[in-house]
Amino acid sequence: MAQHVALQHAGHVRKLVLAGTTAGMLMVPGKSEALSKMINPRR
Asked: How many CB atoms lie within 10 A of CB 35?
């Protein structure tokens, strides 16, 4: 939704930050190493 609004009103939107996005109800990480890096607070 936010991406759609940003594209429709590009003259008013300078930047768009998407946080907490998901691909749907079920999320399966590709590699366990990648997941461990994402949840590490010292990354």
From this structure: 13
Distance of alpha carbon 38 from alpha carbon 28, whole angstroms:
13
Q: Who contacts 2 (Cβ-Cβ below 8 Å, separation ≥6)? A: 16, 18
Give residue 33's pLDDT: 83
Residue 3 CA to residue 1 CA, distance in Å, equals 5
pTM, entire model: 0.40
What count of other Cβ atoms lies within 10 Å of the Cβ of residue 6?
Answer: 15
Specify the pLDDT at position 10. 92
Q: Residue 27 and residue 22: Cα distance in Å, rounded?
A: 7
